[in-house]
Design brief:
- There is one protein chain.
- Helix content is 28%, strand content 31%.
- It is an alpha+beta fold and 280 residues long.
- It has two domains: 116 residues, Aminotransferase class 4, branched-chain amino acid transferase, N-terminal domain (D-amino Acid Aminotransferase, Chain A, domain 1), CATH 3.30.470; 148 residues, D-amino Acid Aminotransferase, subunit A, domain 2 (D-amino Acid Aminotransferase, Chain A, domain 2, Alpha-Beta Barrel).
- Strands 7, 8, 9, 10, 11, 12, 13, 14 and 15 form a nine-stranded mixed sheet that branches. The protein has a six-stranded antiparallel sheet with strand order 2-1-6-5-3-4.
- Strand 8 and strand 9 form a beta hairpin.
- The longest helix has 15 residues.
């Protein structure tokens, strides 16, 4: 069996050796936060944005942020692990932070530990050849609060949406918020296109503050494409020309069908080409 490694609190350890305590708070309470980071053509994509979001999320969760949590140090650790695991030129990085052991719902400390994992990927960003078939997961609504924009470890809403997706034989599900609007999908932010203009939910609608979402908004501005951060309703989606999803790992994935509406992928194709220019 091929040996693989991770980094725990700055030290390289084998993933097959026990190093996490059974009373780990991420396991017991979901008391954690994480970033999914993409490596394309040996380039760590948008790391500054990931580190900024990570630190803001830790502050919101009242976790102590170590002084060494900066772009330079985290980049060095990621590069070290990629070399150790020979995961290049394309890979997925998961950077997880969790509060240290002790206490029940009330923790004994706000100090943290961190874990870095790598996974080999075969290629850079690539648009899906077949459009996704998507519908709404409506059993549980996502609450709008100070945790809504954070990628934290309490993910049962997304897990149950994933189970529903599988049972309905869909490619993805939309998540709706307290007010009944579409705020995101299971693993991505959502964009709609109408007459060449982009529409995406604002953070006040409860969507995750996506790193790739930010890049698409920036690329749109650079290419003189209008972007409006507006609520997305069922009516807006059904009357859009295009729908596509964005996340840091996949880049962009276009939606071919939502309910009885079918969509093209002209804008999604444009943005995936722009993203891949950044990787070169």
């Amino acid at each position: 069996m091929e040996n693989q490694y991770c980094i725990f609190n700055g030290h390289v350890v084998s993933i097959y050796e026990p190093f996490l305590a059974i009373n780990n708070r991420a396991f017991k309470f979901g008391d954690s936060i994480f970033e999914s980071i993409r490596v394309c053509s040996n380039k760590i994509m948008f790391l500054k944005d990931h580190v900024t979001r990570l630190k803001l999320g830790m502050a919101a969760l009242r976790m102590n942020v170590p002084a060494e949590f900066n772009v330079e140090n985290i980049q060095a650790l990621i590069i070290q692990l990629l070399k150790k695991n020979t995961h290049a030129p394309n890979a997925r990085i998961r950077f997880t932070v969790f509060r240290n052991e002790g206490g029940l719902y009330s923790p004994d400390t706000n100090d943290i530990s961190f874990l870095i994992e790598t996974e080999q990927l075969e290629q850079s960003y690539q648009l899906n050849s077949k459009g996704f078939w998507v519908d709404i997961y409506g059993d549980i609504k996502k609450p709008i609060n100070k945790l809504s924009n954070i990628k934290h470890g309490s993910a049962m809403l997304y897990v149950l949406a994933g189970v529903a997706k599988q049972s309905m034989k869909l490619d993805e599900c939309f998540i709706i918020n307290d007010t009944g609007n579409i705020c995101e999908s299971i693993s991505s932010n959502v964009f709609a296109v109408k007459n060449g203009t982009l529409y995406t939910p604002p953070l006040t609608e409860g969507c995750v503050d996506g790193v790739m979402r930010k890049q698409i908004i920036t690329l749109a501005a650079l290419n003189k494409i209008l972007v409006f951060e507006n609520r997305l309703t069922d009516y807006i989606l059904c009357n859009a020309d295009e729908l596509f999803l964005t996340n840091s790992i996949k880049g962009i994935q276009w939606i071919g069908q939502y309910k009885q509406t079918y969509y093209t992928n002209k804008m999604a194709t444009f943005f995936i080409e722009k993203l891949n220019q950044i990787t070169n």
